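User: Predict RING-type E3 ubiquitin transferase's structure from this.
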Amino acid sequence: MAASPPAFPPRKRRPSATSFVPSNFSDHKLLQSLLLLSQDISSLKPLSPLLKRNSRSIIRKTKLIAVLFEELLRNPITCFSSSSAVLCFQELYIVLQRVITLIEDCSNGSKMWLLMQNESLSSTFHELTVDLWTLLDIFPVRDMNLNEDVEELVALIKKQCSEPKAFVDPTDNDLRRELLKMFDQIKREIVPDHSKLAEIFDRLNLRDSTSCRDEIESLEDEVQNLTDEKSKSDVIALIGLVRYAKCVLFGESTPRTTSHRCKPAAELTFPPDFLCPISLDLMRDAVVVATGQTYDRASITMWMESGHNTCPKTGQKLAHTHLIPNCALKNLIASWCRQQRLTFETTETNDRKTNGVVKNKTALEATKMTVSFLVNKLTVSQSMETTRRVVHELRALSKSDSDCRACIAEAGALPLLVNLLGSEYPNLQGNAVTMILNLSTLEANKARIMETDGLLNGIIEVLRTGTTWEAKGNAAATIFSLTTVHAYRKKIGRNTRVINGLMDLAKDGTASSKRDALVAILRLAGDRETAGKLVEGGVMDMAGEVMDELPEEAVTILEVVVRRGGLAAIAASYRVIRKLANVLRVGRRRVQESAAATLVYICRKGGSETVAELAAISRIERVIWEVMENGTARGASA
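Assistant:
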């Protein structure tokens, strides 16, 4: 009898799974490998709690087949004299590889996914059993000179493998139906019965926060393995349900790692081609301008809206302002981020899709229920430890996807964070500011953050006096995120506390927090009025101080500030000019070109004294010729 269609199509198999016999196997080595493979399968534990009987049955049959291989190895000449026997060995090797792959995949994967695939996987176990029966049926047993006991054993295995249909455990099927009923309730915005939810999770051996967190990670891996968008959407619904159950059944969990932010970790070295030439940050939405150069959409849009009609990288006038999506590069960046287990979300919005995955009503409602439960808990007077755990859980949700970020803001979490930003507890303050950073990556949330009384001031205060460098860096990153909106950039740029806080962090912070401060300063420098405040605040000297450590960021800031009215300040700072010249001599090609462009602009506008100062620097002329010869069009034009 044919099995019912599975809930999801089978996922991609793990790369280590083989479905062929290695070409370098001799006949004797093949038989030895069959014995070792069958023994490996025999040593596996049956699956639990799902597919227990199916897995135990095929493991037991394989254990009996191993006895056959042991007997054949005692007299290999006889078995290799038969070409049909060798062919059977080759096919048996393939089938047994599929058996071990299936069991290991089921053992290491998501329990929820296993339950939803119950009927399909039961059929797969049956198909492999039938394949074993077929191969043993055509195996020339009587030509192998086997002893009578082994011949009887082969007959017994064949009989055991001749099951007419797949066995589907009725208990597993009942559990699957209960889960689907719960999905239907959530979809209809009905809060599920917590006792029934606890029963389902107990039967799946998901009995604490840790096991639920592991289950969520396994489901996230399944999303990457699946190719069908509808199936991805359904797995995301499973993730939403597990998140909800983890909170309402087992309470909030504590951090497993120290990585908090939604944006990629600053300590990683990103491929240079993945970074936007303007913001120096990872491109979320790579687009191509008229000159053929690629930028992040938000950065190049802000550049154009500021009144520029040239390509920032080449200096060429743009023939048009159309932005063409660089889909190939975007896919490469997304793939690289998945390999590094980093969150990567584009800035595109679509009514049907979130991050390329079809939205799922059940997943969205489960997310709303989870967020509502946590935010309500945060509004009630709690112990400091409970508050810390709730905020950590919300921070983890804010990192997940745009639906979670929208739900958290809509549930009224932002006003509750104002007081937490001033907390003397480093972990609590850090989670609060990081949650705001994560929420700010969603465009609609930027307005909510700016309009929430006291929230911007709280972020600025963390920037200036935060309890940890990480909290300060995330406050700077939040400033950077908010200033993608032109009106907010002007408002924030007028705040002297922001300017001073970013300057201090850029000079005194850790490597990652310095970079957060510098990219925020670079974004603010795009506004002419703010560029003047940056000059007044000492941006030239600051850039000179950090140029040895972070030359690309420092030089790019100088280039932007000089073009926004900071020429007089840099022309008067020969120390900074000499550092620029040094970067021109020993820096990377991309930084050399930015330094060259800055120096050329200074020479054009700075007068004969500045030109003479540059000309006196050793080997400067030779370096300029090298940049012209080997650099891009921008370097040559400089």
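The radius of gyration is 32 Å.
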